[in-house]
Amino acid sequence: MIEVSHDVFALAEVFRIARGARTQAHVVSVSVTRGGAVGRGECVPYARYGESLESVAAQIEGLPMDVDRDDLQGLLPAGAARNAVDCALWD
Q: What one-character DSSP code corresponds to residue 44?
């Protein structure tokens, strides 16, 4: 089973770059459950790369329930969604 949620994490300090500053991170969290074990991963979608919370969640929700790390490489392009699921599968 693959579950997707949206979380907001408060940052310990203000994160500043040339384009602005942030005090929180909007995160897509993923849980993959197999045989009683649960793996978790997360990602921060970047609008700069055409990603949003909704688009990343939709990519993940479109995966087959039995996806494995080898299949994942061909099912999703490099980006936030693939990173989150890959981390969950490693976990």
A: -
pLDDT 10s digits, 42-51:
999 999 999 9
Count of CB atoms situated within 10 Å of the CB of 51? 18
How far separated are the first and last CA of the chain, in Å rounded? 14
Q: Are 42 and 84 in contact (CB under 8 A)?
A: yes
Dihedral class, residue 64 (left if φ above 0, else alpha if ψ from -120 to 50, else beta): beta
Residue 27 contacts residue 46 (beta carbons within 8 Å): no
Predicted TM-score (pTM) of the model is 0.88
Concatenating the DSSP letter of every residue in 11-22 gives EEEEEEETTEEE
